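Input record (one chain):
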Amino acid sequence: MAFEFLAQNAVAFTATVFIFSLLVGSFLNVVIYRLPVMMKRSWELEIAEFQEDEKQYNKLKQQKPFNLIKPDSTCPKCGHKIRAWENIPVISWLGLRGKCSNCKNPISIRYPIIEFTTAVLSAFVAWKFGWGMQAFALVFFTWSLVALTMIDFDTQLLPDSIVLPLLWIGLGLNLTETFTDLNSAVIGAAAGYLGLWSIYWLFKLVTGKEGMGYGDFKLFAAFGAWFGWQALPLIILLSSLVGAVVGITLIVALGRDRQIPIPFGPYLCGAAITYIFWGDTIMQWYMGRMF
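The corresponding structure, as predicted from the sequence alone:
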């Protein structure tokens, strides 16, 4: 009965997605912080094993568990364990006035912003697409992009543990043509990867520098798998334009060192979100101007 009600009531469906996505946004804050640390620990363990450094390997194996569940969330300054009522998305931050309840250490406003942004984008997807597989899939897609955007922004990493499942899920969805036909999805995945891979090597041969990482290739391939090769030109155009504007602004207005790399993943993710909401409108406008 509840599912039938949500399927027939767009406002209730959108509100439900908004509330649930607030909770997911809280979990994404955990993923954004902990997943890179987990990756680093895994790499260190693999290096020690490869180098046959038994002492270092055993030391690393004896570390306390650190994953998406353990240890419990605590204040980084005083170690105060975050209680359930202090972990309600957005509301707890407002209720605590952005400070730890124990030591009054400031809590970054970034946490409620991520929670709220996740909820708003997800609700927008629910409202635009309505009850159905497209909406369910795109809400999950949106959650993934929020996590990838912030992880890449913080660490310049796009974890395979998020990107690769996203790619295969896209191909799986299009077995039933959820967003495009399977041929377009497969070609899109290949074109997405090889397109940025070719640009990477051309740039490296000309300048001797690496212009982007392999995670960007995989992420672009995932977009091709979800929306087909037809979506890729618009996504790369939007991401490049925004990336260029932001990069030039950081260098000219804020004096950022040109040698400091700027992650490209957030711009790809932003362009993909734009494509979901306004891709058809942009293409119609463009074709109307051209012809």
